[in-house]
């Protein structure tokens, strides 16, 4: 069972600029990597995490110089800044991995985007350190709009995993990826990642 939307990963080439963009427009509740991003040596990446309403957003950037042998570096070089992945908190990680023909690590696994209609999806079995939400909290009232080349394939993939259990509404489009907050505010990921976007 999907317990909730764990977080949305927003990748950029300049995490400091992206974090400032979020901080000056929304006054989010930061719980990791603020004001200095957290560095993960094993993946050569920088990351920060914050709550925006009931959605957790992880900003992420490859450590400079961008290395195409790392997952984040390769993604950024191929696709540019924007939505990197959607992550779900689940009860039975090995069961989900078997169902999706993936290999699970101790705490997570990531699907291939092509297997999920063009969306990279991460499955976790633990609440991230510092996450201020109660363990049983679900996300509600937020619509996540995801750019894919084939919206129908993505809709079918998310229906297969019954992503609606997370309490989040997903929409697939050939347009821009972003979040539609419960108050109607739009956050476009590509525009924010370029730090020139307006909301």
Describe the structure.
The chain is an alpha+beta fold and 199 residues long. The protein has a domain of 136 residues: 2,3-Dihydroxybiphenyl 1,2-Dioxygenase, domain 1 (Roll), CATH 3.10.180.10. The chain is 22% helix and 33% strand. The protein contains five helices and twelve strands. Strands 1, 2, 3, 4, 5, 6, 7 and 8 form an eight-stranded mixed sheet that branches. The C terminus is likely disordered.
Q: How much is the average pLDDT?
A: 88
Specify the CATH architecture of one domain: Roll
Proportion of strand residues? 25-35%
Helix segment tally: 5
CATH fold category name of one domain: 2,3-Dihydroxybiphenyl 1,2-Dioxygenase, domain 1
Straight-line distance between termini: 34 Å
Largest sheet: 8 strands, mixed
DSSP summary, beta strand count? 12
SSE class: alpha+beta
Helix content: 10-25%
Gross morphology is globular
- Helix and strand string, N-terminal first? EHEEEEHEHEEEHEEEH
CATH level 1 class label of one domain: Alpha Beta
**In the CATH hierarchy, what is the superfamily of one domain?**
2,3-Dihydroxybiphenyl 1,2-Dioxygenase, domain 1
Radius of gyration: 16 Å
What are the low-pLDDT stretches, counting only 5+ consecutive residues below 50?
A: 195-199
